[in-house]
């Protein structure tokens, strides 16, 4: 097993479940007409927490673990009022991708590596609530549940090897 990833994010995360905003989204239907529909998005506080959290994840923690992971998160809130909700923290810890066109085909390109590729990899959660009015924060520990192997790079590509020389 590889070593666990341990770090702290300062600031109070917002609950993603109980503080959603309803907005109207415009889109075009198949005929080209503009239509609108309501949709639910993260609250302003939750959206503001994510970029602040990203800046606090150390570079050595952005290893993009593969396979199932377990997380231990102790969230210290400023008051008793907020619900215990780690989802915004998990969102900030995952890698970010964008879709680009290459040779006429769409491909996913990593924009920023995270602790793991996707928060769906989290198979076991241990989340604890604490109070610290002076320093609200989240103390995080991520452990791979399966052994990890670092990708090996060959000095020369396999296609370049002459099969008669080997």
From TrEMBL:
List where this protein forms a coiled coil: none
What are the GO MF terms of this UniProt record? magnesium ion binding
Q: Which GO terms describe its biological process?
A: DNA recombination; DNA repair
**Gene3D superfamilies reported in the protein's UniProt record:** Holliday junction resolvase RusA
InterPro entries on file: RusA-like_sf
Q: What is this protein called?
A: Endodeoxyribonuclease RusA
Q: Which organism is it from?
A: Caballeronia zhejiangensis
């Amino acid at each position: 097993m590889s070593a666990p990833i341990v770090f702290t994010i300062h600031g109070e995360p917002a609950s993603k479940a109980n503080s959603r905003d309803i907005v109207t989204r415009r889109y075009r239907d198949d005929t080209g007409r503009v239509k609108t529909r309501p949709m639910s998005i993260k609250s302003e506080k939750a959206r503001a927490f994510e970029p602040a959290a990203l800046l606090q994840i150390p570079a050595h923690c952005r290893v993009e673990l593969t396979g199932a992971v377990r997380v231990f998160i102790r969230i210290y809130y400023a008051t008793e009022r907020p619900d215990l909700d780690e989802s915004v923290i998990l969102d900030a810890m995952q890698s970010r991708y964008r879709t680009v066109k290459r040779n006429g085909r769409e491909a996913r390109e990593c924009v920023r590596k995270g602790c793991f590729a996707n928060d769906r990899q989290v198979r076991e959660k241990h989340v604890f609530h604490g109070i610290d009015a002076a320093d609200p924060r989240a103390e995080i520990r991520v452990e791979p549940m399966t052994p990890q192997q670092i990708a090996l790079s060959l000095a020369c590509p396999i296609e370049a090897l002459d099969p008669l020389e080997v």
